[in-house]
Design brief:
The chain has 470 residues and is of the alpha+beta class. It contains 12 helices and 11 strands. The strands form 3 sheets. It has a 5-stranded mixed sheet with strand order 6-8-9-11-10, with helices on one face. The longest helix has 51 residues, at 156-206.
């Protein structure tokens, strides 16, 4: 039989309380009995000590203990003469029955010994459990009164009291178990309830219901777990929406060139348009545009998965950027570039190929969106900070945080004549992230868009350790 978590918690709590109750009853029973025996012995000792003075007077009159030597009946008769001193207080039962007092069993445990502790009368006592009281006459010890200490209770009243105490302990333990059982049930239910909610919500999330949330109460570990679950569900829900939007955007991007190509081909088949060099050139442009989109999608997917290989090596950013801008074919043809290097060398750990891909995408973005005659300002500052900004037009402030999203274009019409696939900046963000850097977009003081990239800079010690001359 498989037990649920609630039953397991209940049984564990109940078993723990049961063991504690049994230990409590056992310890209380043993400890109380020993203490009660000590109490009875103490009372017997107090009563027996009352006859020490009478024994001293008897010795002073007779000058010896011969009257008691080996004469137990006389010893018992002598003690009974002082029964008022040796008697225990009456129990409530015997007081009600009319008996004034009960003779204490202490008389049976009294032993008389001489000054050398040699037994005169009475049962020879065991040394380990005998209390000796001095009998003094004229400042010298003439004998001892020995009181044998009880190891067990002998009087019916004492045994009855102990029995009642054990009965009370039993009922106390039973009551504690009943109360603990009553408290364990709601406690176990309350402990398992949030876990069951988490289990149900996890099952729903496994079935694709990412909207499910768990109500958070308290600040314990279960509340933290519920908070983490809600965060995970929110993330999965956002990813699901982004994935659906991603598929829809890709479908839209692919549908447009395919629809254009299909319309042109059908018009040529139907004879509406002539099949000439101009029409074939138009089809070729659409194929090239479609190929570029597919290539961008491939580059983005491989950069997302980390499939792009990075050969990170020390690279001096000032010299590399100057060479890139000097040799790029788009420079000076469509853009006027102003390069401001850093006042000192900047060494970074980078893959030159991927860094070239990053700058190519930024440069193509400038070419597509900057109005002619366009200008580009590239500024490097210590700390491996690169600012890439162009002339107008600018970008609305609301669009700055979305520029690195996939397939995002500022213009609502998604016009292909003024923009590319919308994947270039997303690829740039992945490349910067692979270099452990940061990238952000902001308004440019030159009137257009500014892209700021921060990369980890190598210290001179790191550069020298890799065998590179700075």
């Amino acid at each position: 039989m498989v037990l649920g978590l609630r039953k397991k918690f209940f049984l564990i709590i109940l078993l723990g309380n049961l063991l504690m109750a049994v230990m409590f009853a056992t310890v209380m029973g043993l400890n109380f009995k020993g203490q009660f025996v000590d109490y009875v012995n103490d009372q017997d000792n107090r009563r027996a000590s009352r006859v020490v003075d009478q024994l001293a007077n008897t010795y002073q009159k007779t000058g010896s203990w011969d009257i008691f030597r080996r004469n137990d009946p006389r010893w018992q008769l002598y003690l009974r003469q002082y029964s008022d001193l040796l008697m225990a207080p009456p129990t409530p039962q015997k007081r009600n029955s009319g008996q004034a007092k009960a003779i204490a069993p202490v008389i049976r445990h009294l032993v008389l010994a001489d000054a050398d502790k040699q037994t005169i009368v009475g049962t020879p006592p065991p040394p380990s459990r005998t209390l000796w009281l001095d009998i003094v006459v004229e400042d010298r010890i003439v004998g001892y009164l020995g009181i044998i200490q009880n190891r067990e209770l002998t009087m019916d009243s004492d045994l009855m009291f102990l029995s009642r105490f054990r009965g009370d302990v039993f009922w106390i333990v039973l009551g504690a178990l009943i109360i603990s059982t009553g408290l364990s049930l709601p406690f176990a239910y309350g402990l398992v309830k949030p876990i069951r909610r988490l289990k149900d919500a996890t099952r729903d999330m496994a079935q694709g219901q990412y909207h499910r949330r768990i109500r958070i109460a308290g600040n314990d570990e279960l509340a933290q777990l519920a908070q983490d679950f809600n965060w995970l569900a929110q993330t999965l829900e956002a990813n699901k929406g982004a994935r659906q939007q991603w598929v829809a955007d890709i479908s839209h991007e692919l549908r447009t060139p395919i629809a254009v190509m299909q319309a042109e081909i059908e018009s040529m088949i139907d004879g509406i348009r002539p099949t000439n060099q101009e029409q074939l050139q138009s089809l070729s442009e659409e194929v090239l545009r479609l190929s570029a989109l597919v290539e961008d999608l491939h580059q983005l997917s491989t950069s997302d998965e980390g499939a792009l290989t990075y050969q990170l090596q020390p690279l001096e950013l000032n010299a590399w950027m100057a060479q890139f801008l000097d040799q790029h074919p788009l420079i000076d043809q469509t853009l006027k570039v102003h390069f401001q290097p850093s006042v000192r060398p900047i060494w970074i750990q980078a893959d030159a190929k991927r860094l070239e891909q990053l700058c190519n995408n930024l440069l193509q973005n400038n070419v597509k969106y900057t109005q002619a005659p366009g200008a580009l300002w590239v500024t490097l500052t210590p700390g491996a900070s690169l600012v890439w900004e162009d002339s107008g037009p600018s970008v609305p402030d609301a669009a700055l945080t979305q520029l690195f999203d996939r397939l995002y274009r500022v213009e609502d019409s998604r016009n292909r004549d003024t923009g590319g696939s919308g994947l270039g900046l997303a690829i740039c963000a992945n490349i910067v992230a692979a270099h452990h850097g940061r990238i952000l977009a902001k308004q440019s003081q030159k009137g257009g868009l500014a892209i700021q990239i921060s990369l980890p800079e190598l210290s001179p010690e790191d550069v020298k350790s890799q065998g590179v001359r700075s």
